[in-house]
Amino acid sequence: MYSDKVKDHFMNPRNMGELESPDGIGVVGNPVCGDVMKIFIQVEDGRIADVKFQTFGCAAAIATSSMITEMAKNKTIDEALEISRDDVANELDGLPKVKMHCSNLAADGLRAAIEDWEKRMSGEVPANSAEGTQANPCDSCAQMHEGECETRH
After folding, report:
1. In a domain, 149, yes or no
2. Active site (catalytic) residues
3. d(CA 153, CA 136)
4. Mean pLDDT of successive 10-residue segments in the chain (153 residues)?
5. CA 43, CA 34: separation in Å to the nearest integer?
6. Cβ-Cβ contacts under 8 Å for 98 (sequence gap 6 or more)
7. CA 151 to CA 141: how far, in whole Å?
């Protein structure tokens, strides 16, 4: 069912934890399956210098969180924004169709963390806020259901 890479990232997650002083925090969740991810980023000179995650969810949710942190580290903000759900799934040598929403959550979580960083940089959100930016759960859900969110959030 799961590839060796998914199993490895689940059993030995990379970058798990919380950054002490994050520049951006992204929060995403799926009310259908109950997965919740928090992605923390540290940005230096326009690059993601460090990234960590906290995830409550299934093996695929933890593996995709781990993988997105590996993929985003040392990328420019623009490069990180280009990481898609398919990129995450491909790096893990695939995910079962019923678990593809986890790769959506990971990509959305990274985007939400970057959006939060941008808001902090512009002064829209206090720099020391512990809240983070929460992605709309329908974003992941609509992608999972090919554009039509079947769940009322």
Report:
1. no
2. 33, 102
3. 9
4. 95 97 94 90 98 95 97 98 95 88 87 96 78 61 46 39
5. 29
6. none
7. 8
- Which residues make beta-bridge pairs with 55? 37
123 is in which domain, residue-wise?
4-144
Question: Would you say residue 151 lies in a domain?
Answer: no
Q: Please state the domain count of the chain.
A: 1
Global pTM value: 0.83
- Alpha-carbon distance of 93 to 73, in angstroms, equals 19
Structure tokens at 35: 């997965």
Residue 115 lies in a domain: yes
With both helix axes pointing from N to C terminus, report the angle between 137-144 and 100-122 in degrees, rounded to the nearest 10.
150
What CATH number does the domain containing 62 carry?
A: 3.90.1010.10
